[in-house]
Each structure stands twice: as C-alpha cells, then as structure tokens.
Amino acid sequence: TKDGEALIRTPLRALVDSLDPVRFWQVHRGTIVNVAHVASTTRDFAGRVSLVLRHREEPVAVSRAFAHRFRQM
Fold first, then answer.
1. How high is the pLDDT of residue 2?
2. Which of 40, 50, 64, 73 has its CB 3.0 to 4.6 Å from that of 59, i.e. a possible disulfide?
3. Where are the beta strands (DSSP E) in 1-73?
C-alpha cells in the first residue's frame, strides 16, 4: 500500500484468485500490484523489468515469468 507493506496469512494464490484480474497483477512470486498505480516501467541492460509505483520510492522487481505483461508499456 502507499503506507507500507502488510503481512497476511492468506496464501498468495487464493488472494490472486479473489482479486479483479484486470486491476491487480502478480508481478513476482510474492508481489501483486494494482496496475492503476504503475507510474512507469524500466528495463535494465540485462533485460530485467522494474516498476515505479505512484507513492512508492523504491522500484518493484518483476520476475521473468511475469515480464511479458509489461512489454507494451
């Protein structure tokens, strides 16, 4: 969230299934983002994708398994 991270006991797979797949994307093994809060994407020299989110200073890493979602951004 914009105020920080939260630890929950719900398995990530169950959480992903309960969220709107148009608005919330899993981007890493333990990370789900609200796509509306993605300010920009960056790709480093090795091809790794990172997200810059609104209201969050540090970038969010995107795993190779989910990087295809951001190729058009």
1. 74
2. 50
3. 24-28, 31-34, 38-43, 49-53, 60-62
List CB contacts of 44: < 8 A, sequence separation 6 or more.
50
Q: What is the pLDDT of residue 48?
A: 92
Encode burial over 12-33: b for 16+ CB neighbours within 10 A, e otherwise: eeeeeeeeeeeebbbbbeebeb
Q: Are 59 and 42 in contact (CB under 8 A)?
A: yes
Interatomic CA distance for residues 4 and 53, integer angstroms: 12
Question: How does DSSP assign 45-58, residue by residue?
Answer: TT--EEEEETT--S
Q: Which mean pLDDT values do the consecutive 10-residue runs of the chain (73 residues) have?
A: 80 92 94 93 92 92 91 69
Chain centroid to CA 32: 5
